[in-house]
Design brief:
The complex is a heterodimer of chains A (144) and B (260). With 144 residues, chain A is mainly alpha-helical. Chain A has helices spanning 3-17, 22-35, 56-67, 88-97, 103-117, 121-131, and strands spanning 47-49, 52-54, 71-72, 85-86. The longest helix of chain A is centred in the first third of the chain and has 15 residues, at 3-17. Chain A starts with a helix and ends in a 13-residue tail after the last helix. In chain B, the strands form three sheets. In chain B, strands 10-1-2-11-12 form a five-stranded antiparallel beta sheet, with helices on one face. A five-stranded antiparallel beta sheet of chain B has the order 5-6-7-8-9. A two-stranded antiparallel ribbon of chain B has the order 3-4. The chains are: A mainly alpha (144), B alpha+beta (260).
Chain lengths: 144, 260
């Protein structure tokens, strides 16, 4: 099983729970990894970045999923910030992707995704920074 | 139309540009930043024909691997030669022979060279071939959006940023210039960093991350102003209230004595 398949599966499972923009998706996947005890090797390569934990490879995965027609963003004035939705093909792919992620992990991803969807960016970042201060060291948006 | 921005940092220098090239009524995407050597980059705004002629000369320059300090005047001569060669083939030249300013306006161009070797250096060469160093850690912008960029960057003059933050600043300034400016700027934003380890183009993934960081930063800027106005009294009113003993007593009443 390739690392990329697992990454794609994590994204699809999160979006199955709720459509997310890429910032909320990023923090969802980070909190899942962090609350799972930061297993190694990690699927996404999180680094402490300007807005807290960030995995550049998530952007690549989203691009691939878009090219495969599995996710889509509605046409907004600023499409970069639009949430990603699963397409019909994406829903089908998600039903196949669940076999790559164990049930407990799937539940955690979806629970965090639903929570993240309801947070403002500020409260989302505050939570992430409080839980993982080591990933807030490069942040320009940290309080205090 | 172009915007090129050079931002010196503690550990390198960030060089960024928009990517839109306008040819009459047609616009297309083109790269505007080019490696000069392993530690230096260059870019230009202005007439494409002039930029191409300078590029040809740089390409065949035998000592382009050397520091900008060494080849400063060589590069300036390239610009001067390129302008001269264009004037030689331009039929309009004959009408402006007595007017140098008008002659130069026939083939506009502005060139920036950046390198990092122990410290960041920015070399600016105008179309008349005059080279100047941009000193004291100042940022430099050129192109049709340069005034807009300078307005956004002025508050950071002399600020000591690391490369990561300088990348965010460059990205944000170019993005805002593209969004607001009506002078033919367009995406994608191209960013490069020059460090002691060499030159590197910022990856597509990192550009996306900068996009998100800039989005959050902009949101926080707006939040800082708007939430204070709605949730706190204006600062002068607050100071005045605190200065009034009556108000202070009201705000901080003495604890009442315990009843016997």
């Amino acid at each position: 099983m390739s690392v990329n398949v697992v990454k794609q599966a994590q994204v699809l499972i999160a979006l199955q729970a709720v459509p997310l923009d890429r910032i909320r998706l990023m923090k969802t996947l980070f909190l899942t990894w962090h609350r799972s005890g930061r297993p190694s090797p990690q699927s996404f390569d999180f680094i402490p970045y300007l807005y807290g934990p960030c995995a550049f490879d998530l952007y690549e995965v989203l691009k691939e999923l878009g090219q495969q027609g599995l996710v889509i963003q509605p046409p907004l004035q600023s499409p970069k910030w639009a949430p990603y939705y699963l397409t019909d093909g994406g829903k089908q792919a998600t039903s196949e992707a669940v076999m790559f992620i164990e049930q407990g992990q799937r539940d955690m991803i979806q629970q965090i995704a639903r929570w993240a969807a309801q947070q403002s960016f500020r409260s989302l970042l505050d939570t992430v920074y409080a839980e993982a201060p080591d990933y807030a060291v490069s942040s320009i948006l940290r309080q205090g | 139309m172009t915007l090129i921005v050079a931002i010196p940092a503690q550990d390198g220098i960030i060089f960024g540009s928009d990517s839109q090239v306008t040819d009459g009524a047609v616009k297309c995407v083109a790269r505007k930043i080019f490696p000069l050597n392993d530690h230096a980059l260059w870019a230009a705004s202005g007439e494409l024909a002039l930029i191409q002629r300078v590029a040809e000369r740089i390409e065949t320059c035998p000592n382009k691997e050397q520091s900008l300090i060494v080849i400063r005047d060589v590069l300036a001569q390239f610009v001067k030669d390129a302008v001269q060669s264009l004037l030689n083939v331009d039929f309009r030249t004959q009408f402006f022979l007595q007017n140098p300013a008008a002659l130069l306006s026939l083939h506009p161009g502005d060139f920036l060279f950046v390198e990092y070797s122990e410290k960041a250096r920015i070399l600016h060469i105008s179309a008349n071939g005059t080279p100047e160093w941009i000193i004291d850690g100042r940022v430099k912008a050129t192109g049709s959006g340069d005034l807009f960029a300078h307005a956004l960057l002025q508050k950071y003059a002399g600020a000591s940023l690391n490369c990561e933050r300088a990348k965010l600043l460059a990205y944000k300034v170019i993005e805002e210039a593209i969004e607001v400016g009506g002078y033919g700027l367009g995406p994608p934003i191209d960013l490069w960093e020059v460090k002691s380890t060499g030159v590197k183009q910022v990856s597509e993934q990192e550009i996306a991350a900068l996009e998100d960081a800039a989005h959050l930063l902009r949101g926080r800027e707006v939040e800082m102003l708007t939430t204070r106005v709605t949730s706190e009294p204006p600062i002068m009113e607050q100071i005045s209230r605190e200065a009034s003993p009556k108000a202070a007593a009201k705000a901080n009443p003495e604890p009442s004595a315990p009843h016997r």
